[in-house]
Amino acid sequence: MTGKHETAPEGRLTTEVDENGDGKNYIGVESKENGLNDGKWHHVFIVRKENKLSIFVDGKFSNENVGSGVANIKNPNEFRLGRSYGGFENVEIEFHDFRIYEDALTEEDLKIVYQQAFDVYGDETKVLKFEERDA
Q1: Per-residue pLDDT tens for 14-56?
Q2: How many CA atoms lie within 13 A of 49 on its CB side?
Q3: Residue 105 CA to chain centroid, in angstroms?
Q4: What SS3 class is residue 27?
Q5: Residue 83: per-residue pLDDT
Q6: Alpha-carbon torsion 131, 95, 55, 1, what sign?
Q7: Type and span of the H or E element at 54
Q8: What are the two backbone dihedrals, phi and then psi, of residue 64, each rounded to the nearest 5 degrees?
Q9: How far apart are CA 65 and CA 31, in angstroms?
Q10: Pairing mode, if any, of strands 60-66 and 27-30?
Q11: Cβ-based neighbour number of residue 91 at 10 Å
């Protein structure tokens, strides 16, 4: 999540994957939404399938990007969450019901997980109805 930085809108979600910290098979993507640092809970899916990285925010497809290759992430490198390698100010962020799946979830899987979150947390987390994206 972007905090306050002169080159990026405030409250934008950014995610990146690379193989070795030197940019091998790097892929990065930013949400199209800004203002996600509004003090409300947001439901976020990050899906990596082969060389594609996709973001879903509050039940809606947000953005995706395709990298030049598939990063091998089974390595001894650090896994970082909630902080930036790129010199951006780290922001205070909270996670709830954080999950990592071994395989990429399909959009149908995402709908099921999203609905389960709504059934459990309801309006407490400001979960909205999952919307299908146009293919």
Answers
A1: 888 888 878 888 888 989 988 888 878 788 899 999 999 999 9
A2: 10
A3: 13
A4: strand
A5: 62
A6: positive
A7: strand 52-57
A8: -150, 160
A9: 11
A10: unpaired
A11: 16
